[in-house]
Amino acid sequence: MESLGQVLKWLLAVLLLLNIRAFPTIWHFRIFRPLIYIWASQFFLKMRTILKSKAAKEKAFERWMDALTPVGATPFHSTVFRSWASFDESDYNFHLSNSSYAKALDAARFKLACQLLPKFLVAGGVVPLAGTHFQFVREIPILAKYEVRVTLEAWDEKWIYIVCRFVSKPKVKSRKSHSPVAKKDGAESSPSFFHAPVNSSGVSMSSTPLTSTSPVPPTDIDKLASKLLATEEPDGATLHTITVSQMCFKMGRITVPPAVVFAVNGLCAPPTSISSSNMDFASDTPYSLANPPPHWDEVKAIASRLHGGSIKKLQAFFRGGWKDVPEGERWWERVMGGGVELRRRHNLEVLDMLRKGMEGAREIN
Q1: Adjacent-strand bridge partners of 184
Q2: pTM for this one?
Q3: What are the b/e assignments for 96-132, b being 16+ CB within 10 Å?
Q4: Residue 114 maps to a domain
Q5: d(CA 338, CA 267)
Q6: Gene3D superfamilies attached here (predicted)?
Q7: Boundary (domain end) residue, out of 68, 85, 101
Q8: Cα–Cα distances in Å, from 163 out to 4, 79, 154, 242, 243?
Q9: Does residue 50 fall inside a structural domain?
């Protein structure tokens, strides 16, 4: 009996270890890990400057905050979140379960927000999720490592659209491009955006098995979406799933236009893409913290204590202060022009159809 009890203890220990990522607070740590790093960095900054004067502390905080801010970058920012298909996140088919994709997306999108929008987050802003659209291309096997490649691809006056691509890197000996869909009669058929593809043997390649082996004909929205949501990776990585998330920016209950949030965080079009009726900002030198964009002085006047701004002024600006700026003087619209505006419109034409399609589905009885 004693040996049986010992075996049971070992089995329990192994079971707990296999499901450790499902323990309380583990999800929160995975989500807020980028923010925890920022908090830790700020804490050490305070410790280093604890004996310095108030003015010196403000200068140190200003340098620290500027270093976090992606000054000069375009809004089409990308980041990578890495994870693996653990036992507790896999289904009975030994694949990453459908619900686990959503868990990974929470962490991936928040990582992007921390990198792209530090001033907005410091001011107390949030980025709520309105919806996510999935296209399952092929399964992620249990214990397999994968990446979530996150990119902000488009926005309008209210919504932003974030495209995430779940990929895995093949082993060195098997770096070959794989077609995400079955071929029939030598031709490649396009998968429907709202259905996972089926291989030639009739077995579903998605995380959830399909009951039908009949190929789903592509719709007009599928054809349009395929222009942006390509199912091949430039570096040869294997694509497993594509998602499109629709989100917005909130300061309390107030919705903040994306262009305002982007510009305050230093995002802008490249120098050669910005122009004005009375001033030309074209330059061969990319914008950066050392060579800030022309609107950075406007941001400093709102958000920087050293330039007459404050967190309270920044919060007030996000809550509606931007509306008080005359239309001809709205600097955030100007710095989002040029090539950035052209790409935004092109991508929005594709991605906004997803939102309209789902909104139309609500009208179906």
Answers
A1: 187
A2: 0.79
A3: bbeebbebbbebbbbbbbbbbbbbbbbbebebeeeeb
A4: no
A5: 13
A6: Hotdog Thioesterase
A7: 68
A8: 51, 11, 9, 7, 6
A9: yes
